[in-house]
Amino acid sequence: MTGSKFQVKFWGVRGSIPCSSRDMMKYGGNTSCIEIHCGSRLIILDGGTGLRELGQSMGEGQVDADIFLSHTHYDHILGLPFFAPFYGLQNHFRMWAGRAGHGMLLEQVMQTLMRSPLFPIPVEAFGSEMTYMNFNIGDTLDLDDGITIRTTQLNHPNDATGYRIEFDGRAVAYITDTEHTPGTLDQNILDLVRGADAMIYDSTYCDSEYPRHLGWGHSTWEEGVRLCQEAEVGKLFIFHHDPAHNDTFMDAIGINATKIFSGAQVAHEGLTVDF
Ligand SMILES: [Zn+2]
Ligand SMILES: [Zn+2]
User: Fold this and answer.
1) Position 101 pLDDT exceeds 80
2) I want to staple 42 with a disulfide (CB 3.0 to 4.6 A). Which of 65, 178, 232, 256 is the partner?
3) Residues 6+ apart with CB under 8 A from 114
4) How far apart are CA 69 and CA 101, in angstroms?
């Protein structure tokens, strides 16, 4: 670790739907949510069910944060209505989502998520100051305080945004959800992640499972390794675990992944990494 704090903590690593099972306690059953500290700034990636516990960890102090959504499928937003700091009058959030030129604005998605008869409380119940930031996928976002967020288009139904967070000479990329084309590395992803310290990657499947899931919008841990090797990325965090993969299965993925790429690691709830 060098320079200012650049810390990543995983609060939800499961894909598609939260799981609660004795067989999944090691890696965890909450869906996508990651907390990142860049110096004094707080960045949150995705609002899956892991976000609820992140909110509980924050206590009563004032919170100011930027929340970046990869996309707005349920498993990436279901924690948002249960994020206690949204109801605190003293807090301020900027919520960011990319558009590919069509689809709903972020504020419309939130109003739809929290409306009768789907949810008992409307989005107006949030007491904190909420600023919705819609950007075009591909834009570079300057967050001030030396933080730059680069974005790229991922290959996923209804689109998804890949992020690269750059701060104080270090870079971490967040690439979920996305489907690869076997035999061809995704040029958008290669360009975004090149030389990064780490890539968090949609590893829903193994290569052996992938042919049964063509067109479902997800990738494999082996593809994550190939991307890291080609783009000279230091670490791979295997992420967005399939709800069908229990701890024993995930342990085996970890062993197999580190055999071919020593920088590979299966992400689990609570994993905290300093860069
Ligand atoms: Zn997902
Ligand atoms: Zn999705």
Assistant:
1) no
2) 65
3) 81, 121, 122, 123, 125
4) 16
The ligand whose atoms approach the alpha carbon of 15 most closely is 1
CA–centroid distance, 258 to ligand 2, in Å, is 27
What is the CA(33)–ligand 2 centre distance, in A? 13
Confidence check: pLDDT of 2 > 80: no
Give the ligand whose atoms come closest to the C-alpha of residue 78: 1
Q: Give the pLDDT confidence of 15-53 residue by residue, as tens digits.
A: 999 999 999 999 999 999 999 999 999 999 999 999 999
Q: Which CATH number among 1.10.10.10, 2.130.10.10, 3.90.400.10, 3.60.15.10 corresponds to the domain 6-274?
A: 3.60.15.10
Annotated domain spans of the chain: 6-274
Reference 75, options 111, 109, 104, 32; nearest CA is 32
Ligand 2 center to 156 CA (angstroms): 7
